[in-house]
Design goal:
Elements: H1 3-19, H2 25-40, H3 45-55, H4 63-66, H5 77-86, H6 94-108, E1 111-115, E2 123-129, E3 135-139, E4 145-147, E5 160-162, H7 165-170
Antiparallel strand pairs: 1-2, 2-3, 2-5, 3-4
The protein binds zinc ion.
C-alpha cells in the first residue's frame, strides 16, 4: 500500500507545477489540504495512523481566520514550492506526509517577533488554547512553551491550536522579522 503515497505525491507535484505561477499561500494550503483528504481516504492501517499523527490536526481549520497574509518573512513560498515540493527527494512513503505537515505548520503557525526565552535562537510561534483566547508561545527549535505572562510550561492538559489573525492583531503581536 505504501507506494500509493509516493504516487500521490508525484500527482501533487504535477498539479503544483501546472499552477506554479498562480499559487499564493492560500491556494497552496488548500491544495495540500485536499491532498491530505486523499491520504485520509486510503484504507490502510499504517497510513491511517500516519494521517492521525501528522495531518488530522489540520482538518476543519478555519483557514481564512488563521492564515496570515501580511508581509511574511518567516518563510518563502517560492522556496517551499521549489525545494520542499518540486525538487523534494522522497524515497520513503512517510516523507510526503511529514513534509506536508511541515509545510502546513510553517505557513499556518504565526511566527512572532518574540525571541525564545529558553534558547534565544529562534522566534516563538503563537498558539491558542482551544475554545478560549489564552495564548501560548512555542519555539520550533527547543520546543520551549510559555504563556502570555512568560511562564514556562512543561506540559499542558489542554489542546493548542492555531491562533486567529484577528486575535494576534488584537494583542498587538508582530510577525517575525527573520
Ligand atoms: Zn528555543
Amino acid at each position: 500500500m505504501s507506494h500509493i503515497i509516493l504516487r500521490k505525491w508525484e500527482q501533487l507535484k504535477d498539479k503544483i507545477k501546472e499552477d506554479e505561477n498562480d499559487l499564493n499561500s492560500n491556494s497552496l494550503v488548500y491544495i495540500l489540504l485536499d491532498w491530505a483528504k486523499e491520504i485520509k481516504s486510503i484504507k490502510d492501517i499504517q497510513i491511517k495512523q500516519l494521517y492521525k499523527d501528522f495531518l488530522e490536526r489540520y482538518e476543519d481549520l478555519n483557514i481564512e481566520n488563521i492564515l496570515y497574509t501580511g508581509n511574511v518573512i518567516w518563510y518563502s513560498l517560492e522556496e517551499i514550492i521549489k525545494f520542499d515540493i518540486l525538487n523534494s527527494n522522497v524515497d520513503y512513503y512517510q516523507r510526503p506526509i511529514v513534509k506536508t505537515r511541515d509545510i502546513l505548520f510553517n505557513i499556518l503557525a504565526f511566527k512572532s517577533d518574540k525571541e525564545c526565552p529558553c534558547c534565544g535562537d529562534d522566534n516563538l510561534r503563537v498558539f491558542v488554547e482551544r475554545n478560549s483566547e489564552r495564548l501560548f508561545y512555542e519555539c520550533d527549535i527547543c520546543l520551549c512553551l510559555v504563556d502570555e505572562n512568560g511562564t514556562k510550561h512543561e506540559h499542558l492538559e489542554t489542546t493548542l491550536t492555531f491562533a486567529s489573525v484577528s486575535l494576534i492583531k488584537s494583542k498587538n503581536i508582530k510577525p517575525s522579522p527573520i
